[in-house]
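wait is this the right file?? whatever heres the structure
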């Protein structure tokens, strides 16, 4: 699988070992048109939400695919084959979840607002209640996002996380600007998963900063000139 990886995609080696799974984190080159350029992927239906920085997670069956473009939310879960669950980001954290035993997958858009609303917690609870997943056996892959040394936020963001009982350690004071902080988006979501019962050995990460690394798109760096990168996960038949 690794040798056949298309250009413009990053993958997590542990996920590549799952026989029924296809996944990827696209750089700025990768577009929806590229799905059709990979042999064997043309049969997949890409499902893309209208993302609204919420805690809304949809459990997708075959009948829901026709509604995909109109659905609002920030997370998708399915056990259906031949669907690509797609997340669009340009600094936010894309998270892919997989249960090898139950053959259930999820894709979750974790910006600061969705993270503060604990969207990953909601996604995991749905995987457990609907499909019998066990957090101790779930796997998580974090894609590229803005890094802890670049994600400057204000007191309003810090206060919202504090009100929702996130640990203070996910923030550090800005060394120059009073009332400003750096937020570690990866650590905020990693901590959520650990508190849900994930094993630390089952959480993997592509540790690249979208703001610093020119391979990736960054809204903070490029503002309105920035498009969105695509991260995806799917089940083969």
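ok assuming it is, sequence goes like this
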């Amino acid at each position: 699988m690794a040798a056949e990886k298309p250009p413009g995609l990053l993958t997590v080696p542990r996920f590549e070992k799952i026989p029924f799974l296809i996944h990827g984190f696209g750089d700025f080159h990768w577009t929806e048109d590229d799905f059709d350029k990979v042999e064997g992927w043309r049969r997949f239906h890409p499902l893309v939400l209208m993302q609204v920085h919420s805690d809304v997670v949809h459990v997708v069956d075959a009948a829901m695919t026709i509604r995909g473009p109109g659905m609002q939310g920030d997370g998708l879960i399915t056990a259906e084959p031949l669907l690509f669950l797609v997340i669009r980001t340009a600094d936010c954290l894309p998270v892919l979840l997989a249960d090898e035993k139950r053959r259930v997958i999820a894709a979750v858009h974790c910006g600061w607002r969705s993270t503060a609303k604990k969207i990953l917690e909601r996604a995991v609870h749905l995987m457990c209640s609907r499909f019998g997943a066990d957090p101790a056996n779930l796997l998580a892959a974090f894609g590229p996002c803005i890094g802890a040394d670049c994600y400057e936020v204000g007191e309003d963001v810090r206060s919202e996380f504090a009100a929702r009982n996130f640990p203070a350690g996910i923030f550090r004071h800005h060394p120059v600007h009073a009332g400003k902080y750096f937020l570690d988006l990866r650590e905020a979501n990693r901590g959520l998963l650990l508190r849900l019962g994930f094993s630390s050995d089952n959480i993997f990460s592509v540790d690249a900063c979208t703001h610093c690394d020119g391979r990736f798109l960054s809204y903070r760096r490029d503002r309105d000139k920035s498009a969105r990168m695509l991260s995806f996960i799917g089940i083969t038949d």
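The CA atoms of residues 211 and 221 lie 6 Å apart. so i think its the right one actually
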